[in-house]
Write a structure and sequence with these properties.
The protein contains 1 helix and 33 strands. It is mostly beta strands and 381 residues long. The strands form 9 sheets. A 4-stranded antiparallel beta sheet has the order 1-33-29-28, with no helix packed on it. Strands 2-3-4-5 form a 4-stranded antiparallel beta sheet, with no helix packed on it. Strands 6-7-8-9 form a 4-stranded antiparallel beta sheet, with no helix packed on it. A hairpin with a 2-residue loop joins strand 30 (319-323) and strand 31 (326-330).
């Protein structure tokens, strides 16, 4: 694992983990972060309709390289495997294909009938996959304007993760649809999430044997695809503080050690080892929800985004959450914090959302091997 050694950022209330701050930051909440598979080029999509790219230097410096715009908020991003092209999708129902390294202008792929929530590039098939709130997946040969296949989903797409040939899609109503991309036009398996409440994020195992699922209930499920391995499945609580329960917003496997990170609306991120069923490292809480996160290609950098917004929801008792990607019913918790894009949950209407008073930060944590390398549980050989 390469060394990322940012020059000593000072600890502060806003940055308690002394992470390096990316500048200039987006003007509104960050919806996705993705690193190039070939270089330390970081792309962020945000609710200010922008897609931005920075080049991260080994010493922690960041140089803003370029940006493009959508007509409406941008929700997701993905890189082509050769690191030349960035794909982005959002509320304008479009996918933009941006030849970033060549400096070319973006081209548009159209066809979805609702916002595009998820994107993934599949190098083994030379295809782009998009998931939308129109209840479809679409497979794109990017040389053609129309998708080569449209796959119906049982409900709106909320999350998607790929570790070829395994692809996992989470939808409304807690559906998890598993695809074997050797046969992408047929569902391999459909299950209900092992978690009781709305799905927020997924991460396919690097060995393609299963997936992680995170939900608004402050819990993660570890689930294997093969029926013969169901005894290995388990769930665990995280991102909780007493009776306060926070959404798990992001799940990322480390590309080298295959341990994983969780990030949540409580403002914290943690590194975990699913095989020994233990937390490897807990970090200090930021003062606002972490909206999204990602590792770079060699696992030496962990990027995460926060937005400090006064309209943080705290609700008690049985409630119906009306959020942009659908309602979720919460009945069991004495208190629950949940953000629909985690910076502001829109439950009080657009008039309560004020980007001009919000402060968005993207931070870079230099990952130490001791934080992410798996180890046996204490007391077990």
């Amino acid at each position: 694992m390469a060394t990322f050694n940012p020059a000593g950022a000072a600890a502060s209330t806003q940055n308690p983990n002394k992470s390096f701050e990316v500048s200039p930051a987006p003007a509104d909440s960050v919806s996705s972060l993705s690193f190039s598979p070939k270089a330390n080029h970081l792309v962020a999509t945000s609710w200010d309709n922008q897609v931005r790219c920075w080049e991260v230097q080994p010493g922690g410096g960041c140089q803003a390289k370029a940006s493009i715009s959508h007509d409406q908020p941008v929700l997701c991003s993905a890189w082509k495997d050769d690191g030349t092209t960035v794909f982005s999708g959002g509320c304008d129902k479009q996918i933009k294909m941006w030849p970033l390294l060549s400096g070319g202008q973006p081209t548009v792929l159209s066809g979805h009938e609702a916002p595009v929530k998820e994107l993934a590039w599949v190098p083994q098939m030379n295809l782009l996959v998009s998931g939308s709130w129109d209840k479809t997946l679409r497979y794109w040969d990017i040389r053609q304007p129309q998708p080569v296949h449209v796959q119906q989903l049982p409900e709106r797409c909320y999350a998607m993760s790929l570790s070829f040939p395994l692809m996992v899609v989470g939808t409304a109503d807690r559906n998890v649809v598993v695809f074997n991309l050797h046969n992408p036009q047929t569902e391999f398996k459909r299950i209900l999430s092992p978690l009781k409440h709305q799905t927020r994020c997924l991460a396919a195992f690097p060995d393609q044997q299963g997936f992680l699922v995170g939900s608004i209930e402050g819990r993660v499920g570890v689930h294997h695809v093969d029926d013969s391995q169901q005894s290995k499945n388990f769930t665990f609580k995280c991102h909780r503080d007493g009776n306060d329960i926070y959404s798990v917003n992001s799940l990322n496997f480390h590309p080298v050690h295959h341990t994983f990170a969780t990030a949540g609306s409580d403002g914290s991120f943690n590194f975990w080892d699913k095989d020994s069923k233990q937390r490897l490292k807990a970090f200090s809480k930021c003062p606002a929800p972490i909206t999204c996160s990602t590792f770079n290609q060699d696992g030496s950098i962990y990027a995460y985004a926060i937005t400090i917004q006064s309209a943080l929801a705290k609700m008690t008792g049985p409630i119906i959450l009306e959020v942009p990607h659908g309602p979720a019913r919460i009945e069991q918790f004495s208190a629950i914090h949940t953000e629909a894009w985690v910076c502001y949950d829109w439950s009080k209407g657009a008039e309560k959302h004020n980007p001009s008073t919000a402060k968005t930060n993207i931070f870079l944590h230099g990952v130490q091997e001791s934080e992410v390398k798996g180890k046996p549980r204490a007391g077990k050989k």
